[in-house]
């Protein structure tokens, strides 16, 4: 029988406003937010903390690949480029290396998560 070692640790990311840099985006499948019995496309986004005075650490979040007004990805794209992408295909590689400001909270289990509706351009002060 194989022995598995769980090496995942919860990154120590303080709650609050952070400048984040997108390091990687991967398309995966996950449970639907609306109906957990169904699967749907998900983005696994690797983010690195770029906030002055905060330890350089990275974490990942999952989000829907949607650009609507209330969608997390839509808010991030608007914060980075100033508007939502035009209709049609969008190359997520355009987001790699881009920075934005976002409020970070924590899940019930302590994992960092993005607070919905708080994406802003990297140079703007938090409100």
Quick gist of this model?
The protein is mainly β. It has 1 helix and 6 strands.
Overview of this protein structure:
8% of the residues lie in helices and 36% in strands. The protein has a single domain, classed as OB fold (Dihydrolipoamide Acetyltransferase, E2P) (Beta Barrel), CATH 2.40.50. The model has no long low-confidence stretch (mean pLDDT 90). The protein is built from 1 helix and 6 strands, in the order βββαβββ. With 127 residues, the chain is mainly beta.
Based on the structure given, which CATH architecture is correct?
Beta Barrel
Question: Into which percentage range does the β-strand content fall?
Answer: 35-45%
Domain count: the total is 1
Summed over residues and divided by their number, the pLDDT gives a mean of 90
Level-1 CATH class name: Mainly Beta
How many beta-strand runs? 6
Q: Could you name the CATH topology? A: OB fold (Dihydrolipoamide Acetyltransferase, E2P)
Tell me the number of helical segments per DSSP (H or I, 4 or more residues long): 1
């Amino acid at each position: 029988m194989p022995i598995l070692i769980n090496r995942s640790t919860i990154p120590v990311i303080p709650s609050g406003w952070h400048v984040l840099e997108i390091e990687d985006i991967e398309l995966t499948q996950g449970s639907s937010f609306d109906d957990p019995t169904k699967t749907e496309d998900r983005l696994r986004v690797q983010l690195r903390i770029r906030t002055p005075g905060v330890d350089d650490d990275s974490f990942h979040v999952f989000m829907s690949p949607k650009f609507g007004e209330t969608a997390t990805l839509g808010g991030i794209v608007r914060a980075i480029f100033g508007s939502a992408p035009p209709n049609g295909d969008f190359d997520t590689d355009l987001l790699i290396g881009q920075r934005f400001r976002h409020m970070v909270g924590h899940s019930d289990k302590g994992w960092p998560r993005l607070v919905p509706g708080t994406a802003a351009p990297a140079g703007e002060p938090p409100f």
